[in-house]
Write a structure and sequence with these properties.
By secondary structure, the chain is of the alpha/beta class. It is built from 15 helices and 18 strands. It has helices at residues 2-20, 99-102, 105-121, 135-142, 182-185, 195-208, 235-247, 259-268, 281-289, 311-321, 324-334, 348-351, 354-359, 367-382, 424-427, and strands at 27-35, 44-52, 55-60, 70-73, 78-81, 83-88, 124-129, 150-153, 157-159, 189-191, 213-216, 252-256, 272-275, 293-296, 338-340, 407-410, 428-433, 436-440. Strands 1, 2, 3, 4, 5, 16, 17 and 18 form an eight-stranded mixed sheet that branches. Strands 11-12-13-14-15 form a five-stranded parallel sheet. The longest helix has 19 residues, at 2-20. It is globular and about 70 Å long.
Length: 443
């Protein structure tokens, strides 16, 4: 009895120490800033932003804070919300193409951990990860053990046999029933055929922590054995995947380029078309009518064109990028919901162009339209994940009271010159995520 009393007393003391030793939320006051709030084109000029913990507490002129507050003088520079990339691959961004034949999951983990801080230092405080094993990376970033952006993960990329995410070689065919490839076993991809199998793989992805499902609904560029024009997955299979996503109050994003495949996906209930460069007016109107998002990328066959070791992939890249201008112009005219993503991979040099691709949007949009897309509009798209969205304490992609304190101070005004975002090392003088300052070169 005496032992029980001592144990209870010790537990009570430890509980009290835990409660009363909790740190007060940090307070940061940013003074004298011109603020783009992510929504309105007009800057809020000469205002202060008070940050308490990880949220914006208030915005206004001549704000004050306690003696313990950290004061940052923006010096009249421009504050924008942290940028969002809705088609990123944390696990693949810095992996060479040959890796799929010779790499392993340990190298994926190491390379993605090394790449993670670089993504944040380019000003991308949130990414929607469209396929790969990143659940552990997300967990460690959220716990503060690794520096990086917020991640909304899709988990394994789901593909039919011979589809865009089937990276087997011809000498590995035919498949042995129940046999999994190495990349399936470690959760990078999932090859599934038939209604029951696609249901199972989709449920597994949500079990692992997916916030949405990523499938291949048509042929791809980087893959060797699926022509661009091929429609992948039947209507019934897609409907089964969508049904699973709906049961989790989330949605499906589908890699597709062509009209036929996209129309099937829209009929099935897919809510995000990834890429879509080769579709026309009728399909885009169908997307608008069904409130389907176009998550395409400003990828052109220019000085930044991807170079693949496989000549067929280079041919397909040239074919696809011929449609980039057309799809942006038509989607803007029709009024389709559009999101910004980059889909950069194959090495650190490519991944470093993340901001440069954002700047390329001025080919079709004003700087304001482009920045709004990469902030508040992208955040609006992320809300399709519903309760699976892991960051619900405040809104993302905006600078307003109650929002997450994900902020960038830009030396210059990107609403006048969007090229500033292409060189974040030089022009982003402060980067804050979740109320924590990760970069500050202000004098």
């Amino acid at each position: 009895m005496k032992f029980i009393k001592i144990t209870f007393t010790l537990a009570l003391v430890l509980f009290s120490l835990t409660v009363f030793s909790q740190e007060e939320p940090s307070i940061v006051l940013i003074k004298n800033a011109n603020v783009f709030d992510g929504v309105n084109e007009q800057l809020q000029e000469g205002v202060d932003i008070l940050i308490e913990g990880n949220l914006v507490k208030s915005i206004g002129k001549n704000l004050s804070a306690g003696n313990d507050a950290t004061i940052i003088d923006a010096g009249g520079k421009t504050i924008i919300p942290g940028l969002i990339d809705v088609h990123w691959h944390m696990a693949l961004a810095e992996l060479p193409m040959t890796f799929v034949l010779s790499g392993d999951a340990f190298e994926v983990g190491i390379r993605s951990t090394l790449a993670s801080p670089k993504t944040l230092m380019r000003g991308f405080t949130t990414v929607r990860d469209m396929g790969g094993t990143v659940f552990s990376l997300k967990k460690l970033i959220d716990e503060g053990l690794v520096v990086g952006p917020r991640i909304l993960p899709s988990g394994p990329m789901i593909s039919q046999t011979g589809g865009h995410f089937d990276y087997r070689l011809p000498n590995q065919i035919p498949d042995k029933i129940g046999n999994m490839t190495y990349w399936e076993e470690v959760g990078m991809t999932a090859i599934a055929d038939g209604v029951s199998e696609v249901r199972k793989r989709s449920r597994e992805a949500f079990m692992l922590g997916a916030t949405q499902i990523k499938i291949a609904g048509g042929g791809g560029v980087a893959s060797s054995y699926d022509p661009i024009d091929v429609r992948q997955y039947s209507l019934e299979e897609m409907e089964a995947i969508v049904d699973v996503a709906k049961s989790y109050n989330s949605y499906v994003g589908a890699h597709i380029f062509t009209d036929d495949a996209i129309q099937i996906a829209v009929k099935a209930g897919v809510k995000s078309i990834e890429h879509g460069m080769l579709m026309g007016r009728e399909t885009l109107q169908m997307m608008k009518d069904n409130e389907v998002w176009l998550s395409t990328q400003p990828i052109l066959n220019d000085e930044d064109a991807d170079k693949f070791p496989n000549p067929e992939s280079n041919r397909k890249f040239a074919e696809v990028t011929k449609g980039t201008d057309n799809v942006y112009q038509l989607a803007k005219e029709i009024g389709v919901n559009m999101a910004f993503g980059t889909d950069l991979f194959m090495g650190a040099e490519n991944a470093a162009k993340q901001g440069k691709l954002l700047a390329k949007l001025t080919r079709w949009f004003t700087p304001y339209e482009a920045l709004k897309m990469a902030t508040s509009e992208n955040a609006r798209m992320l809300e399709l994940s519903g309760p699976r969205h892991p960051y619900k304490e405040g809104p993302l992609g905006v600078v307003k009271e109650g929002a997450y304190a994900d902020l960038i101070i830009v030396d210059g005004n990107p609403l006048e010159d969007l090229s500033l975002v292409a060189d974040p090392d030089k022009n982003f003088v402060l980067i804050m995520k979740d109320g924590k300052v990760y970069k500050n070169t202000l004098e």
